[in-house]
């Protein structure tokens, strides 16, 4: 895994299935977009999460925070900004900003903490090479944004 | 597995997450309810699908038809009527009627065909005991309804 | 709206559609269950959220926290315990404990804050009668649990 | 609306949320991808479905068929080929082929019929200009594929 990544940007368009009868995106779906951001972030480091899973690494979400600033609507172009804010031997933390791409309006800010588990579901240290690449990509959350 | 089942009825209430901005249930979600009906049907035969999976049986959907008659809305009470309409050594077919429970309005009629596969995804005959119980529960679709 | 409610318990069973390839419930789906708990809590106060919406009240999620303690699996029986922990003229806060019903294992603890908006999406005070009933049902979060 | 479209191709990547514990994409999610294909098809004709809805046009799914040929997995690159196969004053029919983009493997073939309804849910003829553009884009299903 090569890399010098500090933030990745993922692009998507709101699907009809993601709206609810309030006419906006159903709130739980932003977590799906955060995961999409996380997937792109890990891929940018040189190895996809799909490959990591095939090697026995599992990253399970342990904590979530989300704050909703404005609502996304059907067909809106969306950008998810993803950063890795902390990493230990068995834990990672990501921060996300979900914005409307055409107006740059902040829609949701979110964080997720993840734990590294093995295939039986027990906490397990990440492989050393994976951790080294992740460590190089950390950008602490206290950077003023 | 004991049993003398010909139709099961599953009950649920429409979740907000299942609606879309048209103010009705998003069409793909009826397939989730059909699967819920199938799960209840199999459980009624004496062994849950979760147990079948632990024994190595996998039933994968191979064909779907759905016809939409009327729309379900948030918080509506729903009933899914499920029948097994055909069974072979490696195939099953189910038929469903999704109705609004308080008015008996027919919302969706659907069918799914399933194939029995092993854990590697290849077609595989169902265990003889499972098949025997299923065969006893078949109610052909040409029964006039 | 009559009432003297302090906690409601909602029951459900994990759907196949709610699992992911890690073999457990996909994390975003717990938010759907929390909303189901919230719906039942409001209904227990005497008026369903569906009715509130027809009267022009909209409650939009503004903040979410979730902590994952253990994983739910397909077909597990689930209970969602829901409490109202705070209420103002335009804001409410709920706390949830999602447990596995047959073992009482705590799976997820979560909170959501909601804001009252009108049909155009602007912050709007809740109707006085709705607020009065909600206020009678508040159980602050600092009650030692 | 300009146009001379006969087939559109939509690209996406399988999300983790779209898998189930069988390790493949949950079958109902292909319908979400078909809708995405339909959205892109309509947009290619010169006016987005979001705009059509703002003009009062609603297209509701009335019939679905799906046949599953092979399973998509997490992170697979997917292409949805979408064609309009029939159109009347109040009805449209689309056909889809969902393929794995890197191997061209056919995963799912599907059809959906849609009806044009007004904002109260009643059948309503499509606006003449919308229908004219759609008619020019029809490619009947009996074209040998």
Features:
homotetramer, Thiol Ester Dehydrase, Chain A, 145 residues, 5-stranded antiparallel beta sheet, alpha+beta
Report on this model:
The structure is a homotetramer of 145-residue chains. Chain A is α+β, with helices and mostly antiparallel strands and 145 residues long. Chain A has a single domain (8-136), classed as Thiol Ester Dehydrase, Chain A (Roll), CATH 3.10.129.10. Chain A has three helices and five strands. Chain A has helices spanning 29-44, 49-54, 128-136; strands at residues 8-13, 58-68, 77-87, 91-100, 106-117. Chain A has a five-stranded antiparallel beta sheet with strand order 1-3-4-5-2. The longest helix of chain A is centred in the first third of the chain and has 16 residues, at 29-44. The B-D interface holds B 22, 24, 27-29, 31-32, 35, 58, 60-68, 71, 121 and D 22, 24, 27-29, 31-32, 35, 58, 60-68, 71, 121.
């Amino acid at each position: 895994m090569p890399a010098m990544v500090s933030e990745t940007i993922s692009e998507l368009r709101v699907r009809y299935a993601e709206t609810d009868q309030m006419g906006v995106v159903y709130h739980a779906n932003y977590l799906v977009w955060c995961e999409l951001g996380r997937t792109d972030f890990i891929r940018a480091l040189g190895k996809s999460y799909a490959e990591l899973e095939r090697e026995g690494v599992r990253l399970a979400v342990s904590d979530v925070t989300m704050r909703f600033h404005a609502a996304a609507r059907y067909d809106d172009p969306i950008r998810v900004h993803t950063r890795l804010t902390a990493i230990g031997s068995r834990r990672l933390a990501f921060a996300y900003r979900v914005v409307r791409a055409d107006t740059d309006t902040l829609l949701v800010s979110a964080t997720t903490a993840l734990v590294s588990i093995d295939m039986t579901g027990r906490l397990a240290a990440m492989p050393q090479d994976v951790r080294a690449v992740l460590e190089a990509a950390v950008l602490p959350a206290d950077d003023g944004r």
